[in-house]
Amino acid sequence: MADTSGPHSYLDSASSEVEHALSPPSSFDSRAVDMVIWTYRHTLPVRLAHWVNALCLIVLVMSGLQIFNAHPALYWGDRSDRNDALLSIRPVQTETGEIKGITTIFGHSFETTGLLGYSDHRGRAFPVWATLPGPQWLAMGRQWHLFFAWMFVITGVFFVCYGLLSRHLSRDLLPTTVDLRHIGRAVKSHLFLRHSKEEAATRYNVLQKLAYLVVLAVLAPVIVLTGVGMSPMIDAAFPWLLPLFGGRQSARTLHFIACFAFVGFVAVHVLQVVMTGFVNNMRSMITGWFAVKGGRHDT
After folding, report:
1. 74 and which of 7, 87, 235, 249 could share a cystine (Cβ 3.0–4.6 Å)?
2. Other Cβ atoms closer than 10 A to 98
3. Among 55, 75, 57, 53, which Cα is nearest to 65's?
4. How does the average pLDDT of the chain come out, rounded?
C-alpha cells in the first residue's frame, strides 16, 4: 500500500511504491528502450487542497472585480477622495460625444477602451467576461465572494495543518542550505528555459519552494487579513487590525494588489505546467503519479 504521507523519489521507495515500466512495452525486439519510472508525487490531501483552492481563486477574483466595479478607485489611508485616488478606472465622454475608457495610475492617464473603463458599450471598470456575475450585481457578487473566501480560508488551514503533520512543508517546500546555495544556477536555468529532468523533476526546485512559501506565509495572510479587516463586524471586534494596514482604504488597496499578485503567480504556475509537460503534470495533480525517464534499458 502506498505511503501517502508525502511525495517521494523512486530512490527512496523502490520496493513498494514505485512502479517501473519499459516504454514502449511492445517493442521487445528493440535493442534498448527508455525506462519510465512512476513516482507518487502528490498525495490526496495536497491534490484536494490544490483543486479546491484553484476553484476558489477563480470565483474570488471574478466576484472581487464585480465588487470593485461598484467603486472603481483605490486610495491610501482612511478617506476615499476621488481627487486623490492612486488608481481609478472610469468611462469619460469626449467633446465629440465619444465615450472612452480611461485608467489613471498615480496621476498618469491611459486610454483602455475595450478592456477597462468602457467595453461592449458599457461604462464599467472591468468587462462582463471578467466578473461574476457578469452583469452589474453587487449584492450577488458579495455573496459569492464571502462564501468562497471562507472555503479558501478553511482549505488553507487544512493544507497548512496537513503540511505540518505530514512534514510536507518542511520536507518538500522549505528550501535547504544546498538549495539556497544554488539559487543563482536555478535562476539561470529558468531564464534559458532549462527545466529539471529525470529524478530531479520529481522534486520542487528552489524557486518553486520560495514561490510557494511566499504565497503561504505572505500573500495568503495579507489577502485574508485585509479582506476580513474591511468587515464592519470584524473591525468592531478587532479595532487594531485596520490601523495595522494604514486604514480602511489602504487595506482595500493592499487586498487588490494581493489579488493580482495571486493572478500573476497562477499565470506563471500554469505557464510552467505547460512548458514542463502538461499531460504529465496534470496527471500527477489528478492521480498523484508522475512519470520521469530513468535512462536507457537494454532488452
Report:
1. 87
2. 10
3. 57
4. 87
